[in-house]
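To make the argument concrete, we let one protein speak, a sequence paired with a row of structure tokens, as a model reads it:
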Amino acid sequence: MMYKTFSHVFVLLLSCVGESYSSSTMKTWILNNNFNNPNNWNTKRNPCSKDRVVFPAHENVVVYIPGSLKFRTMVLPMNGQFVLGTSAVISLSEGSVSAASPPCEGQDVQFEGLKGNWFDPPNWNVSSSSAINIAGGSYPSPIPHSEQVPCPMDNVVFPVDKSFKVSVKTQTGEIKVNSIIINGMVSEFYY
């Protein structure tokens, strides 16, 4: 009797697992290296008009600048890219701040950037008709860790108007997904 009960439970579990693999899931990368993301700066705030903005000299940085920026000076990296959004404007100030501006200390603000590993489950936001993702909330995600990382049947999205730095080192040397969407453009992806 115990053997029969165990086999029914095992078959039920296999049918649930099979169902989750048969439906395509959208997995969106969460981290970004945008200039206006406070988590990318050592001060955990965006640079202000009196600040000196410093990028790491010997690191290859890719930074998206979505809108208007104003700061005192900027120390550029030896190698890197700045991607300007359609409304991007960079202005240098003399350090004066209007009464309407938030307080500005005038210090060195260093870009640290968010680097993420493809295989780290918290770096992905999972959405599908059969899964509810509450990532970023106060409760742990109900999706098992291994199900949060993209697999061959999943569609991967890197959101529009953001820059990313993703480590994709694998033991096998390959990553397979159904499709990848970068800047709104869909392509088949094989790494």
Summary: The CA atoms of residues 28 and 157 lie 5 Å apart. Residues 1-22, 129-139 have pLDDT under 50 and may be disordered.
